[in-house]
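Page 47, continued from p. 46.
Same chain as before, 321 aa.
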Amino acid sequence: MSDFDAIAVGRRVLAAEAEALGQLANGLDDAFTRAVETLFDAKGRVVLTGIGKSGHVARKIAATLASTGSVAMFVHATEASHGDLGMIGADDVILALSKTGETRELADVIAYAARFHIPLIAITAVADSALGRASDVVLLIPDAPEAADELNAPTTSTTLQMALGDALAVALLQRRGFKPQDFRVFHPGGKLGAMLRTVGDMMHGLGELPLVSADTPMKDALLVMTEKRWGIVGVTDVDGRLAGAVTDGDLRRHIEGLMGHTAGQVMTPGPKKTVPPTMLASEALALMSDPPPAVTVLFVVEAGKPVGILHIHDLLRAGVM
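Result:
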């Protein structure tokens, strides 16, 4: 029977990386602020570069920045020396990753940044390195032991680099005042895209609205309610504003003499739950589910007037959860 304990190894690795992340968080200083401001002020793109595992992390950070509103790209440090330096413009900012800061392949990138006065931000564990000395801003990661310290394979260091990239991206999007509606533009597909769609994207429009005026006889209101198949009919006032709604519950409460009433007499004033077309679909679903009362249909209202209708099935089919 082997003495190998996979769970113990896993916990040791996670604990070591968690401790290093704590050191990184506690060590953030004014350099982080200057890095965010440098990225914020960039008129061009944010160019990520690195080699090896640092290059893989740099590529991921570029993708994260791009998805949060920054114009970002990855340039492989080796390819940069063979023509790709021409992809980097004078208005860009370079964010270079290297644990030791002595990666030979970064030499041409460093020289290019100096020649054309392109701001250079370093993520490294060694401030007094070739990369650190050449950079305008140095973001230091703790020189913590790698999780596989007997092999010194990049593990803890790449976790720190990636986490610092996430911190930069989130700080930058908040510095820009980036909103969920903005984020949706870059994530139109999948569950995330569904969560970030608006009510206006998903609602049924005016042609499908079950609407009657307040003085409509209930006989006619029931015909509209049945024809539109929403289980509800909206009641509008003389100005076209939504004054209330007639639901199955209202019908039961007025069952005696129902046909002798108008829609305005039977309706529940309000209704209490309406949404604007600009609301996120996820927020609309939460409103539907939040009692009292939970509802399956919402009228979409703009300036007091109904412009659409939304059913909970529309949200669930789209993957909004």
